[in-house]
Amino acid sequence: MPHFVRDIQEIRQRAIHKMEDGAVTESYKGDVNKTVEILNEALATEIVCVLRYMHHYFMATGVHAKSVADEFKEHADDEREHADSLAERIQQLGGKPNFDPKGLLERSVSQYVEGETLAEMIREDLIAERMVIEVYQEMVRYFGSNDPTTRTLVEELLRKEEEHASDLSDLLYIANPETGQSEGQDPGTDPLKREATDKTRERTDEELKKGRKPAA
After folding, report:
1. Does 212 fall in a domain?
2. Is 122 found in the same domain as 86?
3. Average pLDDT over the chain, rounded to an integer
């Protein structure tokens, strides 16, 4: 590594200095205390998301409940893994992961909204995911090159949250967030087929009104 190593002995001495800091070396350009504070807020956010998704998983009812409930459970498991990753990074930085339930909602970006219907549950989860996406984007920009390890971690969390938001957006076609009624197939999945079907239905209705037998 000749382009990166100028004086091995100097690097060794820096590594020996404050060895108790573990992964945090003198080349770390960020503010460790501020990073730990930010990550603990993200940790609280993920915990709240786990709790909300699990509540929705157990309370989901209706004709589409099974498939949607499975989606809630999958998202809850993902958020739990996110919390583990954040806690591990906090510990690496010499901080203390804050799992204290007291003040959990105050530390969290997302809210805990139960929702009365399946549609409301989907809507609230989507709102929460979109809020987290925006915050994680800001975190990626904040850490930048000062803390590439934390930035990479948050980028991975961001990627998963965007997947969650996309999944939940698709579910809105199953349950209308305003009425709670089924909306059927997402028209974006096959717009040409959907358009052809609608035209055929309109022609058939018109022919029936005129008393003619529908064309084959």
Report:
1. yes
2. yes
3. 78
Q: What is the dihedral of CA 112, 114, 118, 119, to 10 degrees?
A: -60
| 171 and 208 co-located in one domain | no
Sign of CA dihedral 163, 165, 169, 175: positive
208 vs 210: CA distance, rounded Å? 5
Domain presence at residue 216: yes
The answer to whether 82 and 98 have CB atoms below 8 angstroms apart is no
The range of the structural domain enclosing residue 197 comes to 185-216
CA–CA gap between residue 180 and residue 95 (Å, rounded): 44
Report pLDDT digits (tens) over 36-93.
999 999 999 999 999 999 999 999 876 668 888 999 999 999 999 999 999 999 999 9
Name the CA radius of gyration of the chain, rounded: 25
